[in-house]
Design a protein that fits this description.
InterPro entries: Atg22-like, ATG22/LtaA_families, MFS_dom, MFS_trans_sf
CATH superfamily: MFS general substrate transporter like domains
Protein name: MFS transporter
Membrane topology: Multi-pass membrane protein
Subcellular location: Cell membrane
Number of helices: 17
Strand content: under 5%
Structural class: mainly alpha
CATH class: Mainly Alpha
Pfam family, one: ATG22
Radius of gyration: 21 Å
Order of helices and strands: HHHHHHHHHHHHHHHHH
Number of strands: 0
Length: about 425
């Protein structure tokens, strides 16, 4: 890999620690413990966690269209990336100083960390076209996710070790303090390994600055949206992506809360999540290689089928062994479906307008991350059973698969003109 490709992939190494420690593992358990101490039912706290995830992603989804189009102008993309990265890192640090019994404040700070994390990823994904070529896009996209799975395990293992040692009384710390140390480790890891991205990655494709970039960005957004409806392959893929990636993101965010509701102890949940990360790394690379050989769309369909099985299996989940089996299937599919979706879309868009269309890719992804947690949260709240909420996610994967079948392979698509040229009219 080139220096810029490696530096880009390292950001996945950096921020994936946030995904597993803050979104998936330690903070959800920490929050649910605080909520339980406050007398809130398990299913209700799970619903609140779902609402918080939905709200934070909704904020980013609302900001992404205008910020994404402004970022296409020279020099803006990196500024926005830096702002959201710093926002996420700083508020992740602040999680460590929020009193453990203040569950509502924890949720608010988590929302701000999530906005920073999701916002930085909007511009991180768009940088893919700046750091590599179309021929290498599968490999580099998969490498990013693989780096993330491997890199995230290091601070995760350190955090687990500190928490377990605190639980057993080996070190003179409470579990609360040990969890807060995990939040600090995550923020520092995220910050340190973001430096190569800031140093070595630059915006290669851009639109020259204009006197009023905000006004121009609204016009550019309108032109892009008008054209994306015309280009059927792109529109169909984004529609399919909207549904199936929503299911993927919801399972990632809500898995620990679900396991906790089933009575699986915290230590087992953390170990399962660690093993899932280890399994995900090689399977992400494998998906990338198979996608190159058999077609990206075909391998994305395989991933969707695995997730449909996961949702059905989760409905009958009632033991730690079942949770282990479920986690292994998640590890097999999640990195592959994410990395291939990113590279597949990168091949669908015309290179000269890739930044504009990647903005829409991220918009659809962020809006998709709202419906799933909300669907799970509402269903769980109404029924009082988390497994009913997880099972409803099958709908998202089935709809996504049906639409994806109508999307042509990248080799069948035709070259499309850059929509930015319409701005000159």
């Amino acid at each position: 890999m080139t220096t810029s490709e490696r530096s880009w992939a390292l950001y996945d190494w950096a921020n994936s620690a946030y995904t597993i420690v803050i979104v998936t593992a330690i903070l959800p358990l920490y929050f649910k413990s605080a909520a339980t101490e406050a007398g809130i039912a398990a299913s209700t706290s799970t619903a609140y966690w779902g609402y918080a995830n939905s709200f934070s992603t909704l904020i980013v989804a609302l900001l992404a269209p205008i910020l994404g189009t402004i970022a296409d102008f020279k020099g803006f993309k990196k500024r926005f990336f830096t702002f959201f990265s710093v926002l996420g890192i700083v508020f992740t640090l602040l999680l460590a100083v929020v009193p453990a019994d203040q569950w509502m404040i924890l949720l608010i700070v988590f929302v701000l960390t999530s906005i920073g994390f999701a916002g930085s990823n909007v511009f991180y994904d768009a940088f893919l076209v700046d750091v590599t070529t179309e021929e290498r896009m599968n490999r580099i996209s998969a490498s990013g996710f693989a780096y993330g799975y491997i890199g995230s395990t290091i601070p995760f293992v350190i955090s687990i070790a500190i928490i377990v040692l605190a639980q057993t009384g080996t070190i003179p710390l409470s579990v609360t303090v040990a969890s807060q140390i995990a939040f600090v480790i995550t923020a520092l890891w995220w910050g340190i390994f973001t430096i190569p991205m800031l140093k070595n990655v630059e915006q290669k494709y851009y639109v020259e600055r204009v006197p009023n970039p905000v006004q121009a960005s609204f016009k550019k957004l309108f032109v892009t949206f008008k054209n994306i409806k015309v280009y059927r392959p792109l529109f169909l893929f984004l529609l399919a992506y909207f549904f199936y990636i929503d299911g993927v993101n919801t399972i990632i965010k809500m898995s620990t809360a679900y396991g906790s509701d089933l009575g699986i102890d915290s230590t087992t949940l953390l170990i399962v999540l660690f093993v899932t990360q280890v399994v995900a790394a090689p399977f992400t690379v494998l998906f990338g290689k198979l996608g190159t050989k058999y077609g990206d769309k075909q391998l994305i369909m395989v991933g969707i089928c695995i997730y449909i099985f996961i949702c059905c299996y989760a409905f009958f989940l009632d033991s730690a062994l079942d949770f282990w089996i479920l986690a292994m299937f998640v590890g097999m599919a999640q990195g592959g479906i994410q990395s291939l979706s990113r590279s597949y879309f990168g091949k669908l868009v015309p290179k000269e307008s890739s930044n504009e269309f990647f903005g829409f890719y991220n918009i659809f992804g962020k809006f998709a991350a709202v419906a799933g947690p909300l669907l799970l949260g509402v269903t769980t709240h109404i029924t009082g059973k988390t497994n009913y909420g997880v099972f409803t996610l099958v709908i998202l994967f089935i709809v996504g698969a049906i639409i994806l079948l109508r999307v042509p392979n990248t080799s069948e698509t035709v070259s499309m003109p850059a929509v930015s040229k319409d701005l000159e009219k």
